[in-house]
Amino acid sequence: MNKIKLIIQREYLTRVKKTSFIVMSILGPIIIASIFIVPLWLQKFESQQIKHIAVIDESRILMPTIKSTETVMFTDLGNTTLEDAQKTYAKDGYYAVLFIPKNILNSTAVQIFSNRQPDFGLKQYIAKLIEKDLETLKLLKSNVNPDLLKAVQTPIFVQTIKWTGDGREVEVTMEMKTIIGTVASMLIYIFIFMYGSQVMRGVVEEKVNRIVEIIISSVRPLQLMIGKITGIMMVGLTQFALWIVISFSVIWMAQVTLFPEPLAPTAANPTATIDSKVMAQVQALGQDDYQYAMDIFGSVSNVNWTIMIVSFLFFFVCGYLLYAAMFAAVGSAVDSESDTQQFIMPLTVPMVISLLMIQVILNNPDGSIAFWMSMIPFTSPIAMMARIPFGVPIWQVVLSSLILISTIIIMAKLAAKIYRTGILMYGKKVTFKELYKWVRYSS
After folding, report:
1. What confidence score (pLDDT) does residue 132 get?
2. Which of 6, 23, 166, 361 is deepest in the core (most CB within 10 A)?
3. CA gyration radius for the chain?
């Protein structure tokens, strides 16, 4: 055991001291946190930009009803033609020109002219604005009171509430579950492939440089393989722990600085006042968008992160051990890293397939495809992490774990036979047939 500890210590310290490890440990969580923060920040920044829209209303019936907001300002150009507006609108400081045709009551289209691509949100806002006004005009033309239509319209919002085991009610948006499932699956894939490849490259490097001949004189091949796999796994766990701490710190700071929740008077605290800076942010972003941002951060806090982190650690460790054993066997069987390609492709195909099927799993996490991919050990780490945010029956998690652990034991024994034979073999192109012989006849 002392020899294995020395190998683990060497593999661990050699890698955590590298500049690449330190840089990725800092940049990685910032990138992850940015997935949540940047879209909200851009939405907030975009909402603060005032857009001046020039309007040419040939119908002369909609312009009086089009009202400006704090971020979208409409200006009537009167009888100006499109040709004249095209020449002067940019110099006059307009973002775009909105053209309403004469036959708008019998048409379904208006046009926006600009020297840039109008954003999707502006197009949707103008469409909804004109739709509402046209509906009102057509109702009046048909002698129908618009207020009557508003009275019978009943918009429905489907709110999803999850009952927890202790009887609490927790709301987590489907969008947030999808994001968390996608990110967790991608991280599992990246960590397994990245650190599994490090095991293979380390074995190949030691074999090519003939360092392994010196090491084998002091330790058994199996001890070397166990020490190398365990040491690199600890590097991955260290980086994951750093990612968790930094990611949550960045998200927390973003919520506090960019989207602080306004303190309004309540029955419990009647003297509370709304902070002026916070209210300025609410007004700049818009109440609906601000509430959406707060819902996102609220959904993040409502996620059971204990289950997510424990599940991630388990499936990362098990998935890593499964693939690292196979990567170590491949590394011991070849003389250069270029020779590993013929073996790596078949090994990584299950991971690639599970990654490509993430969207199918997220769309139907309780479907048969999601279930069976969660049971197959070569795809279960990625598939199961995509399903866990949606809630997976405990028996499925236990069954998947037992199958995965059993496969690791079997694969580790097969990999050890290949490793023991191949680590000291040089100058021979190994085939799958040769590997089969090593496994079959190795004692």
Report:
1. 79
2. 361
3. 31
